[in-house]
């Protein structure tokens, strides 16, 4: 079982869209896949057609995680998010032992678990990073996004160097790419200079079908499989599987 | 002195872009304006050409806020953000008395103070909401953004009903609007149905000049005053001033 966090403290960079569409694309290759929504906003739960209850918070009340899992409108299973997660954040903050999420998921039998995290380095996100085998970093090719990347990469390296986790950065995914736009090109070139081995080759284009899909409670790869956005996430899934063969 | 928070726990909706450009547009009308960067990412500080030090955290160490204020590359003054703010968040969480920010700013002599908040309802954001006379809510006309708005409006109403603050919601600002896109139209129509009296008439269009400006350490209204994006923020400043006359 591989546990992968989708993380970036910069807001609105496509974390949820990547988590939902990647989970669906991987599930469609007959790999047993679970999506964990760790964001109190519960956006990933919405895109999965799931009710925002039975979140991971219930595990602090003694429930077993298998009782919390819902089937989704897509081909993966889902552990929903929602406002209860704020209580989980407080519980994790006061709990000295780390990796609560990994302990909760340990007995499950999935090939892949993707964790969608909120836009902050809160105790929820830190526990997800500690609990993961790897991290994917979605990034919009804009100036503010570039600023935050070094501090995220450092945070993950510190957690790994302190022996809390074996989390490796699996890669950086360029999202909402608009090829016509010079700013995107400049930032993308900058990324290729600073993080050449981390950048995924697959670029996710800006495509309105990806933004429409959640209002139907579906992943884009399920709502409009022929759209540019959906095809890009299918290609990304293939690239991720190839990268993991060499890890 | 009017203290206004720019807030929305949904990430990437244009909080920083709105805080920076509105502060600059208001300052250009000869009103003494301060921008407070309350985000550990420090994006508003970058757009203001300020060093990410001397944040509000220093007030918990006994420094007076007047010692922390920097001049910006724009026409407003700035209280910078940065990673120290994480320590301020911990201090505020453990401090039972609320409204630390209001107390720190009380002796200053500005016409307007704008506070850029991070994408979460953390103790930093809550203290900003408690310390403010009003809140502006930037919102992208997309499905996930619509989901979070009710919980933010409820949070502010609860703070006000509990007597902690007189914060009123001054309005909702539609950002990154792409008129050609049906999703934007549908969501915008929904907003007009549910929050007719809160919606600003001024729409902020998607305009790459606004996204380029921070890489020059400037507000868009300073970098390219003739651009569509800059003109929209100047119009928004006018609409805000008119709305405040009636408050
Ligand atoms: N490739 C894309 N093309 C078009 N729209 C997109 C794309 N990726 C994401 N979006 C839209 O952009 C917005 C931000 O994306 P999303 O919510 O996935 O980001 P996030 O990083 O999860 O945000 P948050 O920081 O709030 O968790 C959403 O409205 C989403 O529908
Ligand atoms: N009207 C606009 N046109 C084009 N780009 C924009 C516009 N408004 C914001 N942007 C860009 O979109 C991205 C998100 O905007 P911004 O960082 O201001 O949002 P935010 O809500 O402050 O994000 P966070 O939740 O991370 O604090 C930035 O790269 C910004 O430059
Ligand atoms: Mg998200
Ligand atoms: Mg911001």
Structure, described:
Chain A contains ten helices and seven strands. In chain A, α1 (15-27) packs across α10. In chain A, β6 (134-140), α6 and β7 form a beta-alpha-beta unit. Chain A has a seven-stranded mixed β-sheet, sandwiched between helices. The first copy, chain A, has helices at residues 15-27, 43-47, 85-93, 100-105, 123-131, 143-161, 182-194, 208-212, 220-223, 228-245, and strands at residues 2-6, 33-37, 70-71, 77-79, 112-116, 134-140, 168-175. With 247 residues, chain A is of the alpha/beta class. The A-B interface holds A 9-13, 16, 40-43, 46, 83, 86, 118-122, 140, 142-144, 147-148, 151, 181-183, 208, 211-212, 214-215 and B 9-13, 16, 40-43, 46, 83, 86, 118-122, 140, 142-144, 147-148, 151, 181-183, 208, 211-212, 214-215. One adenosine-5'-triphosphate sits between chains A (11-17, 39, 43, 118-119, 175-176, 204, 206-208, 210-211, 229) and B (10-12, 119, 142, 144).
Which features would summarize this protein structure in a list?
binds magnesium ion; 7-stranded mixed beta sheet; binds adenosine-5'-triphosphate; 247 residues; globular; homodimer; alpha/beta
Order of helices and strands of chain A: EHEHEEHHEHEHEHHHH
Helix and strand content put the structural class of chain A at alpha/beta
Low-pLDDT residue spans of chain A: none
Strand order of the largest sheet of chain A: 3-4-2-5-1-6-7
């Amino acid at each position: 079982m591989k546990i992968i966090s989708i993380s970036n403290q910069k807001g609105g960079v496509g974390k949820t869209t990547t988590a939902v569409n990647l989970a669906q694309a991987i599930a469609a290759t007959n790999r047993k896949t679970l999506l964990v929504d760790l964001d109190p906003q519960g956006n990933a739960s919405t895109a999965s057609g799931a009710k925002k209850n039975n979140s991971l918070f219930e595990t602090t009340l003694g429930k077993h995680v298998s009782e919390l899992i819902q089937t989704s409108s897509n081909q993966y299973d889902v552990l929903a998010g929602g406002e209860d997660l704020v209580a989980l954040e407080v519980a994790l903050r006061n709990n000295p032992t780390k990796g609560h999420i990994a302990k909760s998921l340990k007995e499950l039998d999935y090939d892949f678990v993707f964790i969608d995290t909120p836009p902050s380095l809160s105790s929820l996100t830190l526990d997800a990073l500690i609990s993961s085998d790897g991290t994917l970093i979605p990034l919009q090719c804009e100036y503010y996004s570039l600023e935050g990347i070094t501090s995220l990469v450092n945070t993950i390296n510190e957690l790994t160097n302190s022996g809390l986790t074996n989390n490796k950065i699996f890669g950086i995914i360029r999202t909402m790419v608009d090829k016509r736009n010079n700013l995107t090109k400049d930032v993308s070139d900058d990324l290729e200079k600073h993080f050449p081995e981390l950048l995924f080759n697959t670029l996710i284009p800006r495509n309105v079908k990806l933004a429409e899909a959640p209002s139907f409670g579906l992943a884009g790869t399920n709502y409009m499989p022929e759209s540019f956005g959906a095809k890009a996430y299918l290609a990304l899934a293939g690239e991720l599987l190839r990268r993991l063969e060499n890890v």
